[in-house]
Amino acid sequence: MSATATPLGADVAADPRSTRRSRGSDKSRAEAKLGWYLAGPAFVILVLVTGYPIVQALYDSLFSYRLTAPADREFIGLRNYGVILTDTLWWEALANTALITVVTVAVELVLGFALAMVMHKVLGWLRPIVRTAILVPYAVITVVSAYAWQYAFALTTGFMNAVVPGVGEDFDWFANKWTALLVICLSEIWKTTPFISLLLLAGLAQVPSDTIEAAKVDGATAWERLWRVTLPNMKASIMVALLFRALDAFRIFDNVYIMTQGAAGTQTVSALAYNQTISRLEIGLGSAVSVLLFVCVLAICFIAIKVFKVDLARARGEG
Amino acid sequence: MSTRWRGRLGAGGAALVLAGSLLSCGDGSAAAGTPTLNWYVNPDNGGQQRIAEQCSADSGGAYRIEVSILPSDAAQQREQLMRRLAGNDTSIDMMSLDPVFVPETSEAGFLEPIPEDLQQELSAGVVQGAVQGASWKGELVAAPFWANTQLLWYRRSVAEAAGLDTTRPVTWEQLIEAAQSQDTAIGVQGQRAESMTVWVNAMIASAGGEVIENPDAKGPDIRLGIDSDAGRAAADVMRALAEAGVTGPGVDNRDEAATANLFQQGGAAFMVNWPFVYAQGKSAAEGGTMDRAVFDDYGWTTYPAMDAGTPAAPPLGGIDIGVSAFSENPDLAFDAVRCIVSQENQAAYMVSDGNPAALESVYDDPEVQEAYPMYDAIRTSLQAAAPRPQTAYYNEVSQGIADQWQPVTSVGEQTPQESQEYIEQVLRGEKLL
Amino acid sequence: MGAMSTKEKAGWYVGALLIVLYAIVPVVYILSMSFKSESDLSNRQFFPTTWTGENYSGIFAGSGSELFLPALRNSIITCLVATLIAVVLAMFAAYAIARLNFPGKRLVLTSALAVAVFPVITMVTPLFNLWRRIGLYDTIPGLIIPYLALTLPISIWTMSAFFRGIPWDMEQAAQVDGATSWQAFRKVIVPLAAPGVFTTAIIAFFIAWNDFVFGISLTSTSRAQPVPAALSSFTGSSYFVQPTGAISAAAVIVTIPVVLLALVFQRRIVAGLTNGAVKG
Q1: How far apart are CA B292 and CA B294, in angstroms?
Q2: β-sheet bridge partners, residue B271
Q3: Could you report the predicted ipTM of this complex, rounded to two decimals?
Q4: Which residues of chain C neighbour A70 with C-beta distances below 8 Å?
Q5: What are B421-431's pLDDT values in tens digits?
Q6: B327 Cβ under 8 Å from any chain A Cβ
Q7: What pLDDT does C77 receive?
């Protein structure tokens, strides 16, 4: 890498992204070449590991194709999509996924903000302790979180019925759609709130403290300061955190797979796709579900960027 | 395995080679010259591993059996095996198959056909249901290894107090009445899982019906017999259970283990379950976690009947050993299979792992009789047992039943018809599952 | 940040305490489950009545060990190798992004973003079909490749953000002072860049360690199965008994390395996470 440092020459200013290209010299061409040499391998891998699957899935989705009966493979055009889009199970899975996404992201945003505030304000010896504690859920793997929450609520193993007020000893959380979804959401929220709160903490640190002080001098209450000064200043970080978490939540699989396997009407889109392709080995139908899931993710991105004007440059870290 | 693995790496980089060499430390112990047979097994108490070692030693160096463990859930075992077999994987020589997946595996051409004379040998003296479960299109395609069946378990004291005569076949109706009168529950498996299909199929078969009328058909042409008098009788039993309030707590997520716990802890004085519950109760009593008196109160009889005149067709389970069509040593594999399912091994396995033998003669073994005092009930039950629907589309049928007949409280008059329509749509590729 | 009143301070301290409780109670619960004896597992209480190590001996020496030990080995190898490859590739890419001006820079960043939000389940079926044809199914390289899709994007962002914060002109300054370019790079740039690379490696490792979908879909035996996928293969004392104790013990074991990393490198991880995704 030492060689790469020299050709830039000593005339490069502190900002390496200055308008050197306008000179159109060999140097800029060499730089472009070097840039691609360095970034190329990562880029090629990224494109291959996702580009190939999506193209293949699109192709497979046009067939009736069962892995254990390869001889019966047949081109059926868009019929798989017709089957899925007229199936109530797909719409139920989509509604569940959307519900989980909205609920978890909303709760995480509020809870994450509260955690970020505490982390921001607490000083002294408590600060590293709090920041370390918050990393524990982030580090614990989703499957472990799913088992912990499942065991805590399950009728055979759980202690929650004794703790939660108004719940009978024999109440089965996983027998009812809404309570089962609630436990799934709890596990998801527990595991991912730390991530969101860390992103918000970064945003909090950017809020100019003199503006807050000025508002204080002007007699603004703590609540007003929060709404008028802190939050507007954090808008960009909040939007990026929202987009990331929403896309992540929309792909929810591990928690559902471990806790309910889709029973009691808790199917989600990812779990539905998994059930068609991997369990039933219906490659064609399952690929079509996967493609539709991909389309949903694209739609969320599109809405976030066009409607909510999430700044992608910021998300890319170019800020 | 490790050489093939490394050969593929090509330009994989130094880091991968390092990983490869680390890996080969783990499993590079194959003795030179002796062919290795890979046996994919369902998880158990280690009994299949012991049998593998025993047979390897007995073969006098002809082969060595390596055991690979599959997931504990039957449906996941199928997933894993099918995925490998669909890739024509030569690393599978033998596999422990749940009988319900024998047709699909055979139909797909994944099972090496068993020579005629060996078919005779492997089915001689085996309980009828187990032979049926290991057969497809009139041929034995896998070797029956063990055969499971469910019994009706009860607390003697409670049955007595309810005036339930357990010396004769008990019906569901009598059972519900007895449970209601004693203010107790009947432990049934109401989870949306394979155990639901086990239950529904047993009731439909006991009422003289069949879940599938033409098992050999291709998916779209399969005719179901759920929407029938037998299917409606099964739905009636479920409804009666729910209406009488004797399903006990948590029925909608209850599997076999949870049922056994409920029975052990006194939440239900009756249950339908596999014989493992006896061994489990025994160890709890010996370990001091359950009162000895409770264990001594355990009673058993054959599975509940649908009506007093007709004996029940109890559930049938178990494991068959199939030889992969992609095995490089099919003849050796068949030799190994003969060893695995020998009478001594089945008897030892029944004692060590609590899984009932497929060979009738094993039940005459004094050691087996001592470990399982209900050996006679098991044998009788196995003789009357009905396999679950045999079809290459078992997974769809079973998942469909579990989905539609659950939760128990939702089952009503319309369930047989609705579930039949739903499963037929899934089989025609018109619905998701 | 102005002086806080004692009351206000106490409020924040209570908040801090609540956070600590929030974070550790579920972990303590699974830890407590892992020490329960078989009969205690269904006692429906938080703590065991008698503490026992039998679940641990079960997965390390007993019937579960044939499943767990290879799975642990697979997880460690797969995640370390995937992390190593991702970090090296991302390091080059991030250097180019942070320091060089080349057409397509935004394309690289945008595609990293796109891959990060790509539904994993969509990748699984085509990869599974391809893998079984070319012999990568149920192998460690067959897992490492898709893990790169998980680890590369975040590695690229995190490191680009770190590298952008490095005062690269110090390198020139060193050269002016008479150091060779190699010396300048080694003495000035490496110490500045190393923390960023290291932090990125930890975060990438967390993400690879967390994988479940690829693990259950692209492997089937102890040849390549990672721990999260192997948990569903555990078995209880008999065929139908739920392996709650074994799962809890294995869950604790896979949690230990990541929690230790989080404890030791808390400051760095927080910096890495906050830098990478939202750069102000």
Answers
A1: 5
A2: B153, B187
A3: 0.91
A4: none
A5: 999 999 988 88
A6: no
A7: 96
